[in-house]
Amino acid sequence: MAENRGKLIAAARKAFADKGYADASMDALTAEAGLTRGALYHNFGDKRGLFAAVVDQIDTEMAGRAKRHAAAAGEGWDALLAEGAAYIEMALDPEVQRIVLLDGPAVLGDPSQWPSQNSCLQVTREAIEALMGQGVLKPVDAEAAARLISGAALNAAMWIAASAEPESVLPKAQEAFRALVEGLLAR
């Protein structure tokens, strides 16, 4: 069952990236995976359920990549900035653009309600609490700050993804993100 699930997610990921959610054919997708529509329905309920699994997989991978960038930047404040900047930069990836940033909200609704986003939000909140405890950030509500930082990064990424010239939008988005987040500094 896990093997079939993996095959369906891999085939769906390719189909959703190439054609978008609306134009991805479930018959073509299941044929690509060497499975039937019944396997799709058994594992995911419907096309939307399969799409949610694909978004969750990509979003989880994005979080891991952002964490690696944060770790490479060091600790504390530098890590928080690097993580947000990395997330925004991932909007240049065509698969991320199409599946997570463009089709994701249209199909699955508010990204802040996605399970993968909620786990990222929790990690951001904990980082903010630690930085406030060290006196690096102003004493504000940690959840509110985490939601605003995460929302700024997500909206910057969505702006880039929807842009006709994403490469030219990226530096503008990253500069504005940094300026907004620096407003939380205690200095």
TrEMBL record:
Gene3D superfamilies attached to this UniProt entry: Tetracycline Repressor, domain 2 (1.10.357.10)
Residues of the DNA-binding region: 25-44
Keyword Iron applies: no
GO function terms (MF aspect): DNA binding
PROSITE patterns documented for this protein: HTH_TETR_2
Domain called HTH tetR-type: residue spans: 2-62
Record-linked InterPro entries: Homeodomain-like_sf, HTH_TetR, Rv0078-like_C, Tet_transcr_reg_TetR-rel_C_sf
Keyword Repressor tagged: no
Keywords: DNA-binding, Transcription, Transcription regulation
Top-rank taxon, per record: Bacteria
Transmembrane segments: none
Name of the protein described by the UniProt record: TetR family transcriptional regulator
Origin species: Agrobacterium albertimagni AOL15
